[in-house]
Amino acid sequence: MRDLVPHFDVVITNYRPPRLRSWSLDPDSLQQVAPDTVLVYATGYGLTGPYNDRGSFNRITRTTSD
User: Fold this and answer.
1) Helix (H) or strand (E) holding 38
2) Phi, psi of 64, deg, nearest 5
3) Is 17 in contact with 23 (CB distance < 8 Å)?
4) pTM above 0.85, yes or no
């Protein structure tokens, strides 16, 4: 992924910040690889702060009514 990022204008992800750090895909790491690429992180609780490792998206489930 890090090899591909410099070839894109925009990168969008919704992975949790701890996972991105473990893959070296956090904002600081990617800015070093591709300083001109726009990075968009869709997180429910932000990249920093006390809840950044929590998920904020529910699973999509199918409900039926009888």
Assistant:
1) strand 38-41
2) -125, 150
3) no
4) no
